[in-house]
Design brief:
The complex is a heterodimer of chains A (about 550) and B (about 180). Chain A folds into 4 domains: about 5-110, Sulfite Reductase Hemoprotein, domain 2; about 125-290, Sulfite Reductase Hemoprotein, domain 1, CATH 3.30.413; about 305-400, Alpha-Beta Complex (Sulfite Reductase Hemoprotein, domain 2); about 415-560, Sulfite Reductase Hemoprotein, domain 1. Chain A is about 35% helix and about 15% strand. Chain A has 18 helices and 21 strands. In chain A, strands 16, 17, 18, 19, 20 and 21 form a 6-stranded mixed sheet that branches. Chain A has a 5-stranded antiparallel sheet with strand order 1-2-5-4-13. In chain A, strand 8 (about 185-190) and strand 9 form a beta hairpin. Chain A is globular. Chain B has one domain (about 5-180): TIM Barrel. Chain B is globular and about 50 Å long. Chain B has an 8-stranded mixed sheet with strand order 2-1-8-7-6-5-4-3. In chain B, about 35% of the residues are buried. Chain B has 7 helices and 8 strands. Chain B is α/β, with parallel strands linked by helices and about 180 residues long. The chains are: A alpha+beta (about 550), B alpha/beta (about 180). Chains A and B meet through helix 1, helix 2, helix 6 and helix 9 of A and helix 4, helix 5 and helix 7 of B.
């Protein structure tokens, strides 16, 4: 993975000094809170309900085990022995003192980490495919581009005070695992006939109050032109994006207002002046960065089928191991290797995406033993060990189990994406963690979960949609009505190549009803499904009406809230 | 007189005395006479009357500059800016609130696209924590908000010593270091 040179190192070190000075000026009231706010946000520091929350960047989801151990140390030293991995592949600590933040950032700088631009109205941490560089369906390894753009976007002087946040996601595989259409900019990397990297650019996607999928604004752009093209997009947005209403300030609103054709035309007109400048990436820059993303030293091992792997273990372990292989492993480019997903979705015992200090250290140990010392974070809030030798899978599985990291529920109903919600976040209208926990308890039967197959269930505690509820097959959104917490259900959302936005089924429910409502929805699915049909296929085929009828027929009308 | 920070390209930042006053016109004050001395007028004022004969001596005396508001679209007025900029002794860009980042793009365009090589002032809600970015996009004079600590402000320009982007002052560190 990428390693800092003296430029990166100097930049993060100086950033810590700058922020230390700003914190001191804030503490002495030389700097007003209103003016300090964007400065701390661009260093990842939010003020939440109980304390400050620090969001640390994990660029495109990649961590070394040394970095993960530092995160574990931070959770122990400055927080409450856990961290929360987010839907943007970052990590958050929820119980931080303002005074200690510069020290935490200094600890991070020692292991080539920072919290720069993890919040605020700027270009945020770039996200990508957690299986980058290893996925069997990969066309272009997105990591060098991710890293080049990380550098390009870091402390960009023109774009530090945009109308609103700006999120970029990058995919280079046949199957989109980075939800590129739900981002301000989504990049799809491809190869042209000569084997050069080119990309399609989608703009104006985003979730939040007005969920919109990105539209294709540029096709087949040569990779080295990305800085000039993105500058053109961002300049048009910075100049003309709305600043009068926070809910209409994202680029999606501008793209929608102008229309795809006019927006693209304005960007193109701007780009005409920029496209041949030396802002563009140079080949030497590519070489410098891409050398860090070479293949690890794979051993020449014979590939094994799942059956062979299962037959190799004790009969009492076979069923559980088979399930884990089915759900928690992914095909690899390298023969004899597999990618493993460690689940951070235990059934109700911890919040989705939470990892304890002990678990973080265990994950680091596993990655050192079995995956070349590298870890990836998924936007579904799980952990990937990308390069595991198949013959070591059972060993890894057994060790992961001891730390509650081997629940075979990846992609199943209980693999819930959830934001921290009203328990922590001061923006939230409602809690999301107790809802996730209640649903996981309700469906705590692996046989049943396996039978149901792939279902994504995403929960957001407010319309900011950090839990990506719009693109969940089942989406749950916390809403505030007359000061109490209610939950609105959407169906039909999906991510991946068929990304779509879910539709609201009707009036919202109170917290206690939610598990029953989900159970009813599942009943309809089981009733209506045809052989091998997934939940999402059934919703597409029959629409939301049958679900609606069942749910509202059985839930007492007086309990629901229009 | 008010002190401001001057940081011309390839020089060091220093305090200087401000010689310019800003004419902030409200609607309906369009006919107000031009104050004496060195005045930076709103771009809308210039559009309406800048080329009138009565102001030509002031222009020759280098008494006139023009400021752009955050709403002014400098590209829409590119022709006028290209044509008239020789008459202006200074350009300023206003920040109605420090969080409004449009001025960063305005400055970039004035420098890169519209060929302005003279003095470019940042005016309005200019705080010391934005000085670094402002100086990188093309500003070289900074009229800080009255409550800002100018001594502290002078220290904000060399916080990093490295950068990942080309800007008005220098290319990205990597380009200059490895001589690509």
């Amino acid at each position: 993975m990428y390693q800092y040179d003296q430029i990166d190192q100097q930049l993060v070190r100086r950033r810590v000094e700058q922020f230390r000075n700003q914190v001191q000026r804030r503490l002495s009231d030389e700097l007003l809170e209103e003016e300090f706010r964007p400065l701390r946000l661009q260093n990842g520091l939010y003020l939440q309900r109980h304390a400050y929350m620090l969001r640390i960047a994990i660029p495109y989801g990649m961590l070394s085990t040394r970095q993960l151990r530092t995160l574990a140390d931070i959770s122990e030293k400055y927080d409450r022995n856990y961290g929360h991995f987010t839907t943007r592949q970052n990590i958050q600590f929820n119980w931080i003192n303002l005074e200690q933040t510069p020290d935490i950032l200094a600890d991070l700088a020692l292991v080539e980490m920072h919290a720069i631009q993890t919040s605020g109205n700027c270009i945020r941490n770039i996200t990508s495919d957690p299986f980058a560089g290893v996925a069997a369906d990969e066309v272009v390894d997105p990591r060098p581009i991710c890293e080049l753009l990380r550098q390009w976007s870091t402390l960009h002087p023109e774009f530090a005070y945009l109308p609103r946040k700006f999120k970029i996601a990058i995919s280079g595989a046949k199957q989109d695992r980075a939800v590129i259409l739900a981002h301000d900019i989504g990049l799809l990397l491809k190869e042209d006939d000569q084997g050069n990297t080119i990309c399609d650019i989608f703009a104006g996607g985003g979730l939040g109050r007005t969920p919109i999928l990105g539209v294709l604004v540029k096709e087949n752009l040569s990779w080295e032109k990305l800085p000039s093209y993105l500058t053109a997009v961002l300049r048009v947005y910075n100049r003309f994006g709305r600043r009068d209403n926070i809910y209409k300030a994202r680029i999606k609103i501008l793209v929608k207002a102008l229309g795809k054709i006019e927006f693209s035309r304005q960007v193109e007109a701007e780009w005409d002046h920029l496209k041949d400048a030396n802002d563009n990436f140079q080949n030497q820059e590519w070489l410098r960065v891409s050398q860090f993303f070479t293949k690890p030293e794979y051993q020449p091992v014979a590939p094994m089928s799942q059956d062979e792997l299962v037959k190799g273990v004790k009969s009492t372990e076979q069923l559980a191991f088979k399930r884990w292989l089915e759900r928690n492993t992914r095909a690899h480019q390298q023969s004899g290797y597999t990618s493993v997903v460690l689940s951070l979705k235990p059934h109700g015992t911890a919040a989705p995406g939470d990892a304890s200090t002990e678990q973080m250290r265990a994950i680091a140990n596993l990655a050192d033993l079995y995956s070349f010392g590298e870890v990836r974070i998924t936007h579904e809030q799980n952990i990937v060990l990308a390069d595991v030798e198949q013959t070591k899978l059972f060993e890894l599985y057994q060790k992961a189990k001891k730390f509650q990291l081997a629940i075979p529920n990846i992609g199943l109903l209980t693999d819930i994406i959830a934001c921290p919600g009203g328990d922590f976040c001061s923006l939230a209208n409602a809690k999301s963690l107790p809802i996730a926990s209640a649903i996981q308890h309700r469906f705590d039967d692996l046989d049943y979960l396996f039978d149901l197959g792939e279902i994504s269930l995403n929960i957001s505690g407010c319309i900011n949609s950090c839990g990506h509820h719009h693109v969940g097959n089942i989406g749950i959104l916390g809403v505030d009505k007359d000061g109490s917490e209610w939950y609105q259900i959407t169906l039909g959302g999906s991510q991946g190549n068929q990304t779509s936005i879910g539709k609201v089924i009707g009036p919202s429910f109170d917290a206690e009803e939610v598990p029953d409502v989900i159970a009813k929805i599942i009943e309809v699915f089981v009733e209506k499904r045809e052989y091998l049909e997934s939940f999402s296929q059934v919703v597409t085929r029959i629409g939301i009406e049958p679900f609606k009828q069942k749910v509202y027929a059985s839930i007492k009308k007086e309990n629901t809230h229009a | 007189m008010l002190k401001v920070i001057s940081f011309p390209k390839n020089e060091s930042p220093k305090q200087i005395t401000n010689i310019w006053q800003i004419l902030r016109n409200a609607e309906g004050e369009e006919s107000a006479a031009l104050p004496s001395g060195k005045v930076i007028v709103p771009f809308s004022w210039w559009l309406a009357r800048g080329r009138r004969h009565e102001f030509s001596q002031r222009i020759i005396n280098q008494d006139i500059g023009v400021w752009f508001s955050a709403d002014d679209d400098v590209l829409a007025h590119a022709n006028i800016i290209l044509e008239d900029q020789d008459l202006w002794s200074v350009i300023a860009v206003d920040f109605p609130v420090f969080r409004d980042g449009r001025g960063f793009s305005t400055a970039t365009l004035l420098r890169q696209r519209l060929g302005w090589s003279g003095e470019l002032q940042a005016i309005g809600d200019v705080l010391i924590d934005q000085l670094l970015q402002l100086s990188r996009v093309g500003f070289d004079t900074f009229v800080l908000r009255h409550d800002q600590n100018i001594e502290n402000g002078l220290k904000q320009f060399d916080l990093y010593g490295v950068s990942f982007q080309n800007d008005w002052r220098s290319n990205r560190t990597l380009l200059s270091q490895v001589n690509l």
